[in-house]
Design goal:
The protein is mainly α. The chain is built from 9 helices and 2 strands. The protein has one domain.
């Protein structure tokens, strides 16, 4: 997100207490989680999950990757006085756009090539139950428990527009220690915010996964198309129109 789109504004001055600065960083991190490109990326992964817990973990993994990038770049800014030009920032955001396009295509591919849902009857304690599910191999199950892809996606976002957003504040903090603390608190806010948003995003996928299969497919279709469309718009805005 570019700095001119901030809705939370505060001038960092020597008069501000350390607590105020860190609180501002936490709130800014929470707000940062609801960026459209962040939500689009996470939604394409969450759409593959039926578990709300798994959906929340996806958001947490994204936030960890995001924080790693911010901390590394922030440390370079603090100790080496690194500058990020507008042209470099535009190219990094275009990379995010390309990633969103790939995520959208992948989500659509999985939707249209997914295995048919089978109905199986099982007897438990003398009572017969019918379950709707697809078959997954062990590799797929392991992938669903942990998704390093989310960490990587978060790192890409951390290198793009979000870095420029945070780095407007970091150079104004005189203490390197407080500046690094600000980055970590910002990251914690983004992790918490994205875990909450991933949980909320996961609700419609969770409740439609078995009983409303066609509606689930429609929602997944919309998620894939949204990611593809937003990614295309970002590339057009940063590389063509810009």
């Amino acid at each position: 997100m570019r700095a001119d789109k901030l809705t939370l504004k505060m001038e960092i001055t020597p008069e501000l207490s350390t607590f105020t600065i860190l609180l501002f960083g936490f709130l800014l991190g929470l707000q940062h989680a609801v960026e459209a490109d962040h939500l689009a990326a996470v939604t394409t992964i969450v759409s593959e999950r039926k578990s709300l817990f798994s959906a929340s973990i996806i958001g947490g993994m994204w936030g960890i990757g995001h924080t790693i990038s911010l901390f590394v770049v922030g440390a370079l800014v603090i100790f080496l006085k690194l500058q990020i030009s507008e042209s470099v920032e535009a190219k990094l955001e275009a990379i995010v756009g390309g990633m969103l396009i790939l995520l959208g295509i992948n989500a659509l591919y999985k939707l249209f090539t997914s295995k048919e849902i089978h109905a199986h009857s099982h007897a438990h304690g003398g009572h017969e139950h019918t379950h709707l599910h697809t078959h997954q191999n062990e590799k797929e199950k392991a992938h669903h428990r942990f998704s390093p892809r989310s960490v990587f996606i978060g790192m890409i976002h951390g290198l793009a527009g979000s870095a420029a957003l945070m780095l407007l504040v970091v150079p104004t903090i005189s203490s390197p220690f407080i500046a690094l603390m600000y980055i970590l608190i910002f990251g914690i806010g983004s992790i918490g915010g994205m875990m909450l948003m991933s949980f909320i995003i996961g609700l419609p996928f969770h409740f439609t996964a078995t009983n409303f299969i066609q509606l689930n497919k429609v929602i997944r279709l919309c998620a894939g198309l949204f990611s593809f469309g937003l990614g295309s718009f970002i590339i057009y805005e940063k590389l063509i129109a810009g």
